[in-house]
TrEMBL record:
<comment type="similarity">
    <text>Belongs to the FAD-binding oxidoreductase/transferase type 4 family.</text>
</comment>
<dbReference type="InterPro" id="IPR016169">
    <property type="entry name" value="FAD-bd_PCMH_sub2"/>
</dbReference>
<dbReference type="InterPro" id="IPR051264">
    <property type="entry name" value="FAD-oxidored/transferase_4"/>
</dbReference>
<dbReference type="InterPro" id="IPR016171">
    <property type="entry name" value="Vanillyl_alc_oxidase_C-sub2"/>
</dbReference>
<dbReference type="Pfam" id="PF02913">
    <property type="entry name" value="FAD-oxidase_C"/>
</dbReference>
<keyword id="KW-0560">Oxidoreductase</keyword>
<dbReference type="GO" id="GO:0004458">
    <property type="term" value="F:D-lactate dehydrogenase (cytochrome) activity"/>
</dbReference>
<dbReference type="InterPro" id="IPR006094">
    <property type="entry name" value="Oxid_FAD_bind_N"/>
</dbReference>
<keyword id="KW-0274">FAD</keyword>
<dbReference type="GO" id="GO:0005739">
    <property type="term" value="C:mitochondrion"/>
</dbReference>
<protein>
    <recommendedName>
        <fullName>FAD-binding PCMH-type domain-containing protein</fullName>
    </recommendedName>
</protein>
<keyword id="KW-0285">Flavoprotein</keyword>
<dbReference type="GO" id="GO:0071949">
    <property type="term" value="F:FAD binding"/>
</dbReference>
<dbReference type="InterPro" id="IPR016166">
    <property type="entry name" value="FAD-bd_PCMH"/>
</dbReference>
<dbReference type="InterPro" id="IPR036318">
    <property type="entry name" value="FAD-bd_PCMH-like_sf"/>
</dbReference>
<dbReference type="InterPro" id="IPR016164">
    <property type="entry name" value="FAD-linked_Oxase-like_C"/>
</dbReference>
<dbReference type="InterPro" id="IPR016167">
    <property type="entry name" value="FAD-bd_PCMH_sub1"/>
</dbReference>
Length: 507
């Protein structure tokens, strides 16, 4: 049965640094016989394939084969868009028996190349599984298909006075299954914690096609190993998440935000302490934007620029959000904070721009959320998403810039900008190097330099975006050999044939 298909060794090309770690397993390309079989399992509109009998034009597969940054490119011939868990199970079983590799794909907004093929793996896109299965207005527990778009879930909850416990700039496209599979952090982690806490249950199709039903709606369940945790952040390497049960949070009655302009980075930490002390239970976000990141956001039309006098002399900005139960109470707290910050003998801030309306609230957030898009409009981004002590954010950005300067790469036709922004409250810096083009010269100047720098702070090379294909070789900077060995054994236990998202996460 296998003789007509071409066996691949993954990877065959592209990632030179993998030369010494080439996996030993073989995968098979999809054949016309496979496509004919998929067409029997799925509705006609759910099978896209350049192969007969379907024969979709290759251009229609492009959005599935290329990632959001247009940095990682696959050559899959076949995209499957199942509508039910049973369909997913049948596809996976077929692929496992024939050693056809699968890339689970959600909204394809990932930033580490995890959701696109390395060669021509089948793309299993979950976008057609987009139904809310149940919602309990007392507990706030929502159960949904994994292909539900995050923003659609948030909108579903509005009339019930609940909000999703996570929010990110990609909310309009990313899916809850992708969020769970990357253990996405985002803008609300400071308040609502990680998905390891708010996800209560999962339904997963295992690599042999078995449906693992752990779609619990219980807050407490100590019956042995908590298996669902393994799939949170597994980036599609252990199975396909098809259903998610998640605890939503009561919607705050009042939210406000203020953009604080700081004369120097050194003030960020004392400011964070003071903001926490004064705002305590109503503090819901504390986000960092350095001056260059702010300027890029404004240049590319993200949010509304602050007035010149508010920006003058600012080395960086912090966006503070409050979410609480009573508007007058929260506003009083925020105003008192601002007054005390401005009137201090040695003020930690130059100014604070307080939103006065829902529109201004959104405009301030748009500056912060829009940096990712601004960076990608400006050039090609090398994105390092790292956990390091907050006190070292500026040093790491400056050291990286100096390093690139010393290599003669800081020039308009090579590296245009080195910027920093991120989730200070979570110790998560987004170090972005914006280049004119992706080039081996820039990449080898950055790696392992950045990873060694992170390691010197005992940090993490991936705070929230995951490992994907980008950082498999860098896992060792944050995980010791024993941990990596255990991860590999878990992978083999779940996926002995190695069909599930090969070449991702594990080196
Ligand atoms: P995809 O990109 O499609 O896939 C991501 C990974 O998950 C891949 O490895 C894929 O194989 C796997 N996967 C997807 N769906 C499933 C499934 N159902 N079952 C098994 N595996 C699956 N990330 C953050 O953490 N915080 C942020 O603040 C943030 N902001 C962003 C802002 C912008 C503008 C953009 C473009 C990205 C941002 N991201 C952020 C990164 C990205 O949005 C998140 O990683 C998101 O969770 C990915 O969801 P997705 O549905 O797009 O997944
Ligand atoms: C963010 O915090 O804006 C996201 O993680 C995306 C990015 O790093 O650009
Ligand atoms: Zn982030």
């Amino acid at each position: 049965m296998f003789t007509r298909s071409v066996a691949h060794r993954i990877p065959l090309r592209a990632f030179k640094r993998w030369a010494h770690t080439t996996p030993t397993m073989n995968y098979r390309s999809v054949t016309e016989e496979d496509v004919a079989h998929f067409a029997k399992i799925l509705a006609p509109s759910s099978v896209l394939s350049t192969l007969a009998p379907v024969s979709t034009p290759a251009s229609e597969l492009s959005i599935y084969n290329n990632d959001w940054m247009n940095k990682y490119h696959g050559k899959s011939t076949t995209v499957l868009r199942p509508k039910t868990t049973k369909e997913v199970s049948e596809i996976v079983k077929w692929c496992n028996e024939r050693r056809i590799a699968i890339v689970p794909q959600g909204g394809n907004t990932g930033l580490v190349g995890g959701g696109v093929p390395i060669i021509d793996e089948v793309i299993l896109n979950l976008g057609n599984m987009n139904k809310i299965r149940s919602f309990d207005p007392v507990s706030g527990i929502i159960v949904a298909d994994s292909g539900c778009v995050l923003e659609a879930m948030s909108e579903y909850l509005v009339p019930h006075h609940y909000i999703m416990p996570l929010d990110l700039g990609a909310k309009g496209s990313c899916q809850i299954g992708g969020n769970v599979s990357t253990n996405a952090g985002g803008l609300r982690l400071l308040r609502y914690g990680s998905l390891h806490g708010s996800v209560l249950g999962l339904e997963v199709v295992l690599p042999d096609g078995t449906i693992l039903d752990q779609l619990s709606t219980l807050r407490k369940d100590n019956t042995g190993y908590d298996l669902k945790q393994l799939f949170i952040g597994a980036e599609g390497t252990l199975g396909v998440v098809t259903g998610v049960s998640i605890l939503s949070a009561p919607a705050p009655n009042a939210s406000s935000n203020v953009m604080l302009a700081l004369p120097k980075y050194e003030n960020v930490l004392p400011l964070f302490r003071e903001v926490k002390r004064q705002l305590s239970e109503i503090l819901s976000a504390f986000e960092f934007i350095d001056r260059r990141a702010y300027e890029l956001a404004v240049k590319h039309g993200q949010g509304r620029a602050l007035n010149d006098e508010d920006v003058e002399g600012a080395e960086c900005f912090v966006l503070v959000e409050t979410s609480g139960g009573k508007r007058e109470h929260d506003e009083e707290k925020l105003n008192t904070l601002l007054e005390s910050l401005m009137e201090a003998d040695e003020p930690l801030i130059n100014t604070g721009v307080l939103s006065q309306s829902p529109l201004q609230f959104s405009q301030l957030w748009a500056i912060r959320e829009g940096i990712t898009e601004a960076v990608s409009k400006e050039g090609k981004a090398y994105k390092y998403d790292i956990s390091i002590p907050v006190a070292s954010f500026k040093t790491v950005v400056d050291t990286t810039r100096d390093h690139l300067q010393s290599k003669g790469l800081l020039r308009d036709d090579a590296v245009k900008h080195v910027v920093g922004y991120g989730h200070v409250g979570d110790g998560n810096l987004h170090l972005n190097i914006v280049a004119a083009e992706y080039s081996p010269e820039i990449e080898s100047a950055l790696e392992p330099f950045v990873y060694e720098l992170v390691q010197s702070y005992k940090g993490s090379v991936s705070a929230e975006h995951g490992i994907g294909v980008m950082k498999t070789h860098a896992l060792q900077y944050s995980k010791n050999a024993t941990s990596i060995d255990l991860m590999r054994r878990i992978k083999t236990l779940f996926d002995p044939n190695g069909i599930m998202n090969p070449g991702k996460v594990l080196p």
